[in-house]
Predict the 3D structure of the following.
Amino acid sequence: VRVLLRQPRREIEVEGVSRVAELLKRLDVVAESVLVIRGDELLTPDISLSEDDVVELRPVISGG
Amino acid sequence: MKCRVCRDRAVIQMRRHNANFCKPHFVDHVHRQVERAIHDHRMFGPDEKLLLGVSGGKDSLALWDILTNLGYRADGVYLHLGIGEYSSDSLEFTQTFATERDLALTVVDLPTEYGFTVPEAARAGNRVPCAACGLSKRYILNKAADDGGYDVLVMGHNLDDEAATLFGNVTRWDLDYLARQAPVLPASADGLARKVKPLIRLGERETAAYCILQGIDYEVEECPMAAGNTVNRYKEWLNRIEEESPGTKANFLFGFLERGAAVFQSAPAPELAACQECGQATTGTVCAFCRLQAQTVVHISRKADIRG
């Protein structure tokens, strides 16, 4: 899965993850702090991912 | 996962509500939460003149969209902080949003109108940029509300902002701030507009999701001056707790508002007087913003002298 990260913007490749929940766990990202986006849809943790998927992990924490 | 209401495919899981929602029912949920906050805390009525502080971020743009959808008419005020590309991009998101929806927007330019930027103010006073930024925002947004004859200044603070602020206030046992943390700060006779926070029942994950689902483009990148700031760190910690125990942030904040806040409000409020420089309400003789401005402008001119 190709993953777009923000703040700052960059891309990484993550192999061997089949669901959104697994991807977050692999990257040690707290689900409460991000939204997972594929194209124009939001993905819940149970959604399956395929090797050629491109997803964005968009942080939601801002301000201060 | 299925939507709690219609059993269609869910687009968001909300563990603190033990619910998942599809797009239309999530949008409904967001609108209802804001309407409930406005109603429960008597924030404003349909005929009051509203000014919304807009930053180009997810919270203020989502709130502008929600208020408009609920039938309220709110004008926007954007403060240009002079933080390079971040400020110009944020302004562009704000202007595009307002233009597309035919909403009134006032832009206040800190460098042009007050002679300094937030990074300059931070350097001049050897303070963290977020402190100079917060002070400038409070002052200028309040002044904009006062100058424009608005009844209410509407802010985009969400549940996470308020929970993180409360966490900070509690760790320092800052009694003054604890006494004043509320969804509605009443207007004062000295010119401070009533200030309200209609997003208090929504987390920032929900306002971000709302923007994405409604096609609202917002500034996703974080302010370069805010990297690693204390409030954002508190938010990360609270999210780790929330992950283990959904509902903790809401219980923390609403428990305080419903049962704790009154304990801290028993102390008399500080007396306000008109600032000798600008006339806005202050607890001292010259307000904090006028002192910040004077110090920064002197610092800038000294640096120019040295270079010249």
About this structure: The radius of gyration of chain A is 11 Å. The helical segments of chain A are 20-26. Chain A touches chain B through 24 residues (CB under 8 Å).
